[in-house]
Amino acid sequence: MANIVTSGASAKAVLVVVCFALFFQVLNASAVGVILPEIATGISADMSQIGWLMTGFLLVTGIAIPFYGRLADRYGAGRLFVMGVALFAVGSVLAGLATNFQFLLVMRIIQAVGGAAVPGLGMVLVSRAYGPESRGMALGVIAATIGVGSAAGPLLGGVLSELMGWRSIFFVTASVALTIPFTIKALPKFEQRSAGSLDLIGGIGLGLMVAGILLVPAEGSRAGWTSDWVIVGAVMAAVGMGTLVARQAFASSPFIHRELLRNAKYLALAGMSFSVMAANLAPLIGLPVLLAFSHGLSSLEIGLVMVPGAVLSAAGGLLSGRLTDRSGAKIPVRIGSLVMLVALFGLSAYSGSSPWIIAIFAGLMGAGFGFVNTPLAATISKLVSGEMLASALSMNSMLFFLGGSVGTALLFAFSTTSGLADGSLNPLHSGLAAGFSDGFLLLMIPVAFALGLSLALPGVSSREISGAEKITTPGETIVEGVPVQRWVPNCSVPWAPESVETVPTIGD
Known about the structure:
mainly alpha
């Protein structure tokens, strides 16, 4: 028996098209927040309405990501990825043409439905294109792309808004449609499928739970923790969780593979993803607000302060990927976690001081996150068998998303309500932004939690995960520690070069 993988040239093509799509998706998410005041003026909406352009986008993205993963298990990731990119581009164009709030909100939701296909499915496609010995490097490139897109968004959003108006942001992100022909050519025409029905009730339960978890902190930090939407979100989360738990217990083929929830290593990785992103995304969104209101910086100046974080996040992701391929995940994860702890303490201590000191610690934050992010996805791609890989990576992406949203909401809640009468909780902080100082200090807790969970990380060099450790579906064959991949021709998807080669499994 043998695994089927794409050739080296084809694998690089897959990586390139996935990174292009991912860059535009992340860029859109990070740029729109900067231009919300201009959008409100342009379509005559008040700020209470305009906040839903971000909240609605986040809610729908968080719900759609796991659905894409589960559907990809059955129908293949390539077709869904292309459909998602196309839908995201259509939503972007129409959002740029919107003349009222209601139409723009609908288009943002369409953007979210399409864009949600990119993170999880992109990692699935790249993980399947590269062998275990080079997968960390490839996922490091993806992590670098995310870092650059996240940090470049505020700068590009501010510059384009000043030069050509807020609509230009949506038209720029719509240009991702130009990559679709190359994507169709690059993606393989053979995809691995799994059997089993789709547990729609369980999926709805998960969607309600995710929506509620996102809605509570988002509305609590904006409108108060006793507001109507907070109560609605709490009820949604409770009902969704109850439904999901019941389906996981009694459904013959539940929405989340039972094998994933029974594996302690996968649960540890999922917890790390949630925790690390809670600490990382909050500064990316919170620092531009801090620099604008406490330091009076322009959009261009804010972007320059964020540049070190983008550059070092990209460099950290690439270095971490190579290190993960050589020696496993534990070393880069621990290095990155410690660097993030130093960065968050520095941001807490100097949040009211010189913007250029803030830029130094933002750079350290980016470097630390780059070192942690890549090994998590690489470990999952080697721990989980091919038949469940799409679900496993999409659930991981969903938890990244959830963690980032919760962390951001908590930071903003602290920024408006925290701060002791005589200063902040950090004894080294003085001056402005005591609430932000306390918020950054609080974000050290999830990083410390992730550092503790790193004790459960397995070795992830190409031959270190044994067959007994791997998460496989019942009846799946293991050859010398490697699952035998069952690839099913997808004859209805006529894309990709014909360059496919057969690589022997370990032990052949």
